[in-house]
Amino acid sequence: MSARVGHILVLIMFIQISITSSQKNSDLVALQALKHAWQGTPLSWNDGSDPCTGGWVGITCTNSRVTSIILSSTGLIGPLPGDIGEFTELVVLDLSYNTGLTGSLTEAIGNLAKLTNLILVGCKFNGPIPSSIGNLERLRYLSLNSNGFTGSIPASIGMLKNLYWLDLSDNQLTGTIPVSDGITPGLDMLTRTKHFHLGDNQLSGEIPLGLFNSNMTLFHLLFDHNRLTGEIPSTLGLVQSLEVVRLDSNSLSGDVPSNINNLTNVTEMYLSNNLLTGLIPNLTGMNRLNYLDLSNNSFSESDIPSWFSTLEALTTLKMHYTNLAGELPATLFSFPQLQNVDLSNNRINGSLDISPNPSRQLELVDLRTNRISDFRQRRQYTIGLILVDNPICMESGVTNAFCSLPTKTSAAYSTPWNNCTPPSCGSDLVASPNCQCAHPFVGLFSFKAPSFSTVTNATIYDSLHNLLMSFFKNASLPVDSLSLSNPSRNLEDYLVLRLQVFPSGQPNFNRTGIIGVAFALSNQSFKPAKTDFNTYTFNAENYNFFSDLETGVAKSNTSSTGIIIGSAIGGCVLVVLLVLAGMYALRQKGRAEKAVQHNQPFAQWDSTSASGSVPQLKGAKSFTFEELRKYTNNFSESSQIGAGGYGNVYKGSLPNGQLIAIKRARQGSTQGGLEFKTELELLSRVHHKNVVGLIGFCFDQGEQMLVYEFIVNGTLKDSLSGRSGIRLDWMRRLKIALGAARGLQYLHDLADPPIIHRDIKTNNILLDQRLVAKVADFGLSKPISDANRTHVTTQVKGTMGYMDPEYYMTQQLTEKSDVYSFGVVMLELITARNPIEKGRYIVREVKQMMDKNKELYNLHEILDPTIGLSNQLKGLEKFVDLSLRCVDEKGTQRPGMGEIVKELESIMTFVGLNPGSEPSSSAGYEGAGQDFSHPYSNDSLFAYSGGFLPPNLHPK
Ligand SMILES: *[C@@H]1O[C@H](CO)[C@@H](O)[C@H](O)[C@H]1NC(C)=O
Ligand SMILES: *[C@@H]1O[C@H](CO)[C@@H](O)[C@H](O)[C@H]1NC(C)=O
Ligand SMILES: *[C@@H]1O[C@H](CO)[C@@H](O)[C@H](O)[C@H]1NC(C)=O
Ligand SMILES: *[C@@H]1O[C@H](CO)[C@@H](O)[C@H](O)[C@H]1NC(C)=O
Question: Can you tell me which family this protein belongs to (predicted)?
Answer without folding.
Answer: Belongs to the protein kinase superfamily. Ser/Thr protein kinase family.
